Amino acid sequence: RKVLKKNDDLAAENRACFMSRRTFAVNLLSSPGSGKTSLLERTVDALKHELRIAIIEGDVQTDNDARRIAAHGVPVAQIVTNGLCHLEASLVQSALPQLPEDMELCVIENVGNLVCPASYDLGEHMKITIVSTTEGDDKPLKYPAMFRRSSVLIVNKIDLLPYVQFSVDACIANAHSVNPELLVFTTSCSSGEGIDAWCDWLRDRVRELR
Amino acid sequence: RKVLKKNDDLAAENRACFMSRRTFAVNLLSSPGSGKTSLLERTVDALKHELRIAIIEGDVQTDNDARRIAAHGVPVAQIVTNGLCHLEASLVQSALPQLPEDMELCVIENVGNLVCPASYDLGEHMKITIVSTTEGDDKPLKYPAMFRRSSVLIVNKIDLLPYVQFSVDACIANAHSVNPELLVFTTSCSSGEGIDAWCDWLRDRVRELR
Ligand SMILES: Nc1nc2c(ncn2[C@@H]2O[C@H](COP(=O)(O)OP(=O)(O)OP(=O)(O)O)[C@@H](O)[C@H]2O)c(=O)[nH]1
Ligand SMILES: Nc1nc2c(ncn2[C@@H]2O[C@H](COP(=O)(O)OP(=O)(O)OP(=O)(O)O)[C@@H](O)[C@H]2O)c(=O)[nH]1
Ligand SMILES: [Mg+2]
Ligand SMILES: [Mg+2]
Ligand SMILES: [Zn+2]
Ligand SMILES: [Zn+2]
Question: What is the pLDDT of residue A137?
Fold first, then answer.
């Protein structure tokens, strides 16, 4: 379709911009409320003293998430889509001038939606999808495109495992049946479990680029 | 837009069909994994001996949810959207012939998505939106259109309240700031708490129509 072609052209421009500045750019995706902002708060706290980080927040309404991130002391730009259920490359392009040119890591938190954001390239290096243990371990099978196009799967809220019907092994097996290359982390943004391993991996990706 | 106009025409046909048969039709909405199918399993078990119930399941991929419902012994039709992130009236219209004409209650479980399903009338009497306590109490503010167009809000997974940062009062206040008319139930599909009150209300709506 013509819409995606135009989007892809702008995404390529964004990507060229990230590459020329050697900024590692990530598109962070999940259902509403899986913990995207919570993971960013933990990640920013762990890495802000050693990496120049900036965040782009995408939401249908409110700037709540940008306020949460700003309180952690890193640059953040809020995109309000006014009803659009996904971010597009043009929205990211218009947000970029609000952020420092020398940022080493740029994470774009997409609109909470497990379907169409998978189809809109924003110019990122990779897509990272979060699934919460409270959503059911069948999500990779029921919403496959997102998992197929992602490089990393984060299973978040593992502190809630004792109280929900969720098998981490089944979820990972389902995800690998859709995308065998998927790298998996398990985390809890409330207890902090698994955050170090995730941050170590992310730091390595940023360092590799520079 | 022309797409929504055509959809609205088909929705009107569906609605006329439901009304002529005096079927109470509900469009059940939420994020992925909030508990739509779990609530339907509980509801069907509670009401199937006194009401003629049929379910329409909408999913991007798999017929997992229809199998879960079928195991409870009521008629169910599965719509697989193959990537479309919401149900449309035409899909519901083509599923209706698979269900008994004398059904008294028809619940349409929509694709898990808090954004665009709000814009597609399926011919239902009302939209019912579920929020899980694990998603955060800010969802009505961040994804307002769904709450504005719904008649009922169900706050599900209240058994998990001791383990999450979620205020039921704040969530309800946020929802009422978007839609003051919203009727609210709180439930747990695992403990069964609140299910009776929800089923009582639903039975009354079906009875009213006949
Ligand atoms: N128990 C527990 N709760 C968590 C965890 N991570 C996030 N939460 C809670 O989950 C809810 C949603 O978290 P957010 O970080 O706002 O989720 P989000 O994906 O950014 O949500 P949207 O941007 O609205 O789509 C909040 O109430 C958080 O406190 C976790 O690891 N464990
Ligand atoms: N603790 C707890 N878990 C629940 C509750 N309701 C549902 N769950 C769990 O939440 C997960 C998702 O439930 P589903 O009923 O499949 O959710 P859904 O909204 O139908 O999901 P999709 O159709 O994939 O969008 C499952 O692991 C359920 O066991 C509840 O009240 N309490
Ligand atoms: Mg967020
Ligand atoms: Mg379901
Ligand atoms: Zn979309
Ligand atoms: Zn859609």
Answer: 98
